[in-house]
Specification:
Chain A is an alpha/beta fold and 723 residues long. Helix content of chain A is 31%, strand content 18%. In chain B, strand 2 and strand 3 form a beta hairpin. The termini of chain B are far apart. In chain B, 43% of the residues are buried. Classes of the chains: A alpha/beta (723), B alpha/beta (208).
Chain lengths: 723, 208
């Protein structure tokens, strides 16, 4: 039983989140650092360069790293205050084992032995697949690679997946289907030289703030901006055209825009003929999506839809960017494909200033989806169900192909299987599903049913509180490695300080566990660069080919864009030049996407659409950012954002306490009455646990292809609470 | 921070509220300064959050003839040779708050705990070693820019402006606002709310 070992309040007293406001030694310490370490932010997929200041072997502040080309010193508030996670009072310093009254210290050797014994016992009784591995997309490429190999060879389970399942999988599956490769098609520099930026479902200003500057630099040259979002976000406020789409209707809107583009004669027939397949089916399908036909469905007047098409057709070069707003849906992949259809039909890709990108969410949202820690994937972004791909990896790992487990369950499915008792043991790292998965009450029930749960973490996350054993791992600044940014640029993460106390680098913990599980010979790594060397070798010939990348080359070039198939190759900033795509026939694929309603539409009982998302000062499940005082002060508590028209009907004023209820549960929180959201939609940010968790309201409905949850549409009702 | 001898500022601050995304990176960066660690000298405001997400940073504009200094009974607010209006001298400031009331831009703050007026001094600790002010270095949208007028106007479609009319009072400042290209003087009047942006109108047309 993995119920909490002590009351939540007692665990919070002992392990936080507590708030850190000042560096060790006070702010004066940053004036005379012992050394400066150029690395990257630990948070989002923009991976801004930043210099950490180290004094007396402690991180005491940051300095902008202006030489790094992507962000040139620019940072959001998270990047500036990130260093306050170091030397934090909540930091886990020793292995901890569940006791009758909470957690107690346990020596490393005993802890590692315990994992091997408990995992072995469960697998002997219930089979190898009764133990699952959950990993994360904030890990370096080296660790992501290691986790996939660890799960499949050391634990021997097919059930390994990662929290990118909540982030990049819809975009990834869509890209793979359309292009045969899953990476941003263009470097961010192409945003600056475009004539039209279309941003869909991306609160760029809060979730990828540095991208704002790229968009403005394009606008300084005269580029137009079109934003599609149910909320009037800061980037949307100044847009030339803003389409306030009703949540869950994106594929219908994109079909209507393509319909209008075709009507305007905007199709690049030569490009379509020479470089694509499947356009006829798409043209026949979107024939039925006239803007006038779908305007009520998508919630936008037809003439504005036509205006978007006109702007798209008139612009010689266009950049289409999207993020989770269109991807967190039961039709996330279809929404992505509908966007790609527009890009392909007009031939606006593979050229300077013309192309397409999905904006990654997590720090290694790109790289962590390529190294083989996904349930359906092997290193090099290979397909685990493709016999040739399996054979390549088996050969590289010196195992029989039959020794490689098959496709496993997705992260949400793993939690469902735990709930059903089909998975009994869990090894997790870098994942806080209790906050980040939909239907948090269900997730909690699942965690309470585990027979054995070991978590590797640096803070005791809400999920790790349920563990039997907690192994103290490393923070971003305590290890070497690489990540792959939103552009597909592989960059270097540099170690600034050692892990404190008995905490250890994550890769050492994984290798130690593998040794205990009898697979030490396959995990005989002595450094992250050693792991990287194997990773790049194994990636050779895969879709995500890193084989020409070295740490030295990354440092020399300020990053290397994959594919980079040999030592002399400079890397590939822009994909699809000359209309060459990565399917065997070199052609991109159109996909005819019929609109489907969301899994849970509004009705008389639950008449309001709930959509969830982020605020600029917090990051994902908040394990780190809810411990950084200045960030917490910016936006301390979740509020529900609603339009004055809706508030008026409900008798709610700004600041009133309201109850938001769905079929899963309810949440009591303050109303934030603002005219910057559709009147039929409310918004709650999701960074908090327990009674403040937006995911107590969201539903367990998933995209059938990618398995991404429908975080962006749920049906709720709202009542004003007595004062 | 002491003013280094012979040091000359190589730039000025250009503020473009239109680009501001309200992220508070400027405040968080400013509060890292060892001179006033934990406190920011630049402030981010939501102008009218009920109807708009428009935000704007407020920071000392460094007036040519600063009202804060002229109303200071203790002569505590000095202007350096570069035209930078400095934080009140701690040994002179009596914490009366006249400067807070006099400033047309609403910048100075009285720090009760220190009984001292504190405000932006354009980062002497950084500019004296050829670093830009941290707020303008980090600003992710370019709403804050540090450099010369030529540099910013070469990069931007907006033009810079440093003449403000407060009724009959004309105030010239060292720092600049970025404004639409045709604007010559900014008349600051207590008007009704600014016109809606096209995007704000597009939201009103949403079909529900």
């Amino acid at each position: 039983m993995a119920r909490l070992p002590a009351p939540a309040e007692a665990l919070a007293d002992a392990f936080g989140p507590h708030l850190s406001y000042e560096p060790p030694g006070g702010f004066a310490a940053r004036a005379a650092p012992d050394r400066k370490v150029n690395t990257h932010c630990c948070f989002c997929g923009q991976q801004c360069g930043v210099t950490l200041l180290v004094k007396d072997e402690r991180v005491v502040g940051i300095e902008p790293w202006e030489e790094f080309p992507f962000n040139q010193g620019k940072l959001c508030p998270k990047g500036i205050k990130r260093y306050l996670q170091n030397n934090h009072p909540d930091r886990l310093l020793h292995p901890l084992v569940r006791t009758g009254r909470g957690f107690g210290r346990i020596p490393w050797d005993e802890a590692l032995d315990l994992v091997a014994e408990r995992v072995g016992r469960l697998q002997a009784r219930y089979g190898r697949d009764s133990v699952a591995v959950l990993s994360g997309a904030s890990l370096t490429n080296e660790k992501a690679y290691l986790m996939g190999k660890f799960a499949r060879l050391a634990v021997g389970t097919r059930h390994v997946d990662y929290n990118g399942r909540l982030c990049m999988v819809a975009a990834g599956a869509g890209n793979l289907r359309a292009f045969g490769i899953d990476r941003a098609a263009n470097p961010w520099a192409d945003i600056v030289s475009t004539d039209l930026v279309m941003v869909l479902g991306s609160n760029v200003s809060e979730c990828s703030p540095i991208t704002t500057d790229y968009i403005w630099r394009a606008r300084d040259r005269g580029a137009k901006l079109v934003v599609v979002d149910p909320r009037l976000t800061p980037i949307a406020r100044t847009a030339d055209l803003y389409l306030p789409v009703r949540p869950g209707r994106d594929s219908a809107l994109m079909n209507a825009i393509l319909h209008a583009v075709i009507r305007l004669g905007g199709v690049d027939h030569d490009f379509v003929e020479r470089h694509t397949t499947g356009f006829d089916e798409v043209r026949a399908l979107v024939e039925r999506y006239a803007p006038e036909t779908v305007e009520r469905l998508v919630g936008i007047p037809a003439r504005r839809i036509v205006e978007a098409a006109e702007l798209w057709v008139q612009a010689p070069r266009t950049m289409l960017l999207h993020a989770r707003g269109i991807e967190h849906h039961t039709k996330g992949v279809e929404n992505v494909l509908a966007c790609i259809n527009l890009v392909l039909a007009t031939g606006k890709i593979g050229k300077p200033g013309s192309g397409y990108a999905t904006i990654t969410g997590q720090g290694n949202g790109q790289g962590a989806r390529e190294q083989g820690q996904r349930c359906n994937q092997l290193p090099g972004a290979r397909d685990i169900e493709n016999p040739a791909h399996r054979a390549e990896v088996a050969a590289a790992w010196s195992v029989a192909e039959s020794a490689l487990p098959g496709k496993g369950a997705t992260a949400p499915e793993i939690v469902e299987m735990i709930h059903r008792g089909e998975i009994r043991g869990l090894v997790s790292i870098c994942f806080n599903p209790l906050v980040s998965l939909p239907d948090a009450t269900f997730t909690q029930e699942a965690l309470e049913r585990l027979d054995f749960f070991v978590a590797i973490d640096f803070f005791l996350s809400e999920t790790a509180r349920h563990a039997d054993l907690v192994l103290p791992g490393s923070l971003h600044e305590e290890d070497e490695g690489t990540v792959t940014s939103t552009e597909g640029r592989v960059i270097r993460i540099r170690k600034a300080v050692d892990p404190p106390g008995e905490a250890r680098a994550d890769w050492r913990i994984i290798c130690d566990l593998a040794r205990r599980l009898g697979k030490g010979h396959q995990f005989d790594f002595h450094s992250p660069s050693h792991i990287f060397a194997e990773l790049t070798r194994v990636s050779r010939g895969g879709v995500a080919d890193y084989s020409g990348i070295t740490y030295e080359k990354i440092e020399r070039q300020m990053g290397v864009f994959w594919p980079c198939p040999d030592a002399d190759h400079p890397g590939t900033p822009r994909l699809f030049e000359g209309g060459r795509f990565h399917h065997p026939d070199g052609r991109a694929r159109f996909h005819a996407v019929e609109y489907r309603p969301p899994a849970e539409d509004v009705d008389a009982d639950y008449p309001i659409i709930l959509t969830t998302g982020r605020v600029v000062s917090q990051f994902l499940s908040g394990t780190q950012t809810r411990r950084i005082g200045p960030l917490v002060d910016q936006y301390p508590e979740p509020k529900v954002e609603l339009h004055p028209k809706l508030a008026g009907r409900l008798g709610v004023c700004d600041g009133d306490r309201v109850r938001v209820s769905s079929r899963r549960g309810h949440l009591d929180l303050a109303a934030h009455v603002v005219a910057t959201i559709r009147p039929d939609t409310v918004f709650i940010p999701y960074h908090w646990p327990g009674e403040r968790s937006a995911n107590r309201l969201t539903l367990r409905a998933y995209d059938p292809i990618a398995g991404i949850p429908e975080f962006k549409v749920a049906a709720v009702r709202i009542e004003r609470l007595p004062a | 921070m002491s003013v280094s001898e012979g040091h000359r500022l190589t730039g000025e601050l250009f503020i473009d509220p239109n680009r501001c995304i309200g992220c508070r990176a400027c405040e968080e960066a400013c509060s890292e300064c060892p001179g006033h660690g934990g406190h920011t000298m630049i402030h981010l405001d939501f102008l009218e959050r009920a109807t708009s997400v428009q935000t704007a940073p407020t920071v000392c504009m460094h007036c040519e003839d600063p009202a804060c200094a002229s109303v200071c009974p203790a002569d505590a607010i000095k202007v350096d040779p570069d035209g930078v209006v400095l934080t009140a001298m701690a040994e002179r400031c009596i914490g009366c708050g006249n400067c807070v009331l006099a400033c047309p831009f609403g910048v100075p703050e009285l720090h009760a705990a220190r009984d001292l007026m504190m405000k932006c001094d354009l980062c002497y600790d950084r500019t004296s070693v050829d670093l830009k002010p941290m707020c303008a270095t980090v600003c992710p949208s370019g709403a804050l820019f540090f450099g010369t007028r030529e540099e910013v106007e070469d990069l931007r479609s907006a033009r810079s402006l440093n003449v403000f009319e407060f009724g009959d009072e004309v105030v010239r400042t060292k720092n600049h606002l970025m404004v639409p290209a045709h604007t010559r003087v900014l008349a600051v009047t207590p008007t009704e709310r600014p016109p809606r942006t096209p995007a704000e109108q597009h939201l009103e047309e949403a079909l529900c």
